[in-house]
Amino acid sequence: MQSTDEILDVFKTCQALKVGHFALASGKHSGHYFQVAMLTQHPRLLSRLIESAVHPFRTSPGVDTVLSAAIGGVPVGQQVALALGCRAIFAERHPDDRLVLRRSFSIRPAERILLVEDVITTGGTLDELNRLVEDAGAAIAGVFAVVNRSGRADWNGRPIEAILSMKLPVYDESECPMCRTGGFPVRPGTKKVAA
Questions:
Q1: Which residue pairs from 159-162 have beta carbons closer than 8 angstroms and sit at least 24 positions apart in sequence?
Q2: Which run of H or of E encompasses 158?
């Protein structure tokens, strides 16, 4: 496993770590934004990073299916499933902004599902994916992310395994130091910003 500094160097080289003033999907503001798509455009590099981090999911009882959210989680989910030798499916945004399974994807009862994210900040997308798993009567095998910036080691009592874990400051808009100096945030992501 590479050190945090080595992994950060990879992110910086790929331009997957942006510095500036950003509005996150949670509605919070941050001076840092992880654009994992800049890393996923290099599949071999991503594959090496994933291989070094997925070991906990190779032990019994294992993982039957990887579930990620479109669009950012799809290439990550595919790579994780390839590393684990299991099926990969993804959920997509419905026009009402809920995550739903489409394309004839389904989750079978009692299946062991690994939730996969590109970036975890608040865990909101994980909550939505979990709803799909619970509705199907399946079980959560664990949580994996490329970046865990939440500052938490677990989600709903399950450990979060991540390639990179680091807590970066986030601010409510009313308390954002960058806004106070007259700056306007950029919204680089695709998920709707929370109101």
A1: 159/56, 160/120, 161/53, 161/54, 161/56, 161/57, 162/53, 162/120
A2: strand 158-165
Q: Flag whether pLDDT at 79 surpasses 90.
A: yes
Q: Nearest-CA neighbor of 57 among 115, 110, 106?
A: 115
Domain of 161, in residue numbers? 4-180
**pTM (2 decimals)?**
0.90
Q: Does some domain include residue 185?
A: no
What are the two backbone dihedrals, phi and then psi, of residue 116, each rounded to the nearest 5 degrees?
A: -125, 130
Q: Give residue 106's pLDDT.
A: 96
Give residue 69's pLDDT: 95
Q: Check which CATH number belongs to the domain holding 54 and give it.
A: 3.40.50.2020
Q: What pLDDT sits at residue 60?
A: 76
Helix H or strand E segment including 147 = strand 139-148
Two structure tokens written together for 64: 């039957």
Pairing of strands 87-93, 99-101: antiparallel
**CB-count exposure of residue 89 (10 Å: 0-12, 13-18, 19+):** buried
Please check the confidence at residue 183 and state whether its pLDDT lies above 60: yes
Phi, psi for residue 57 in degrees, rounded to 5: -95, 0
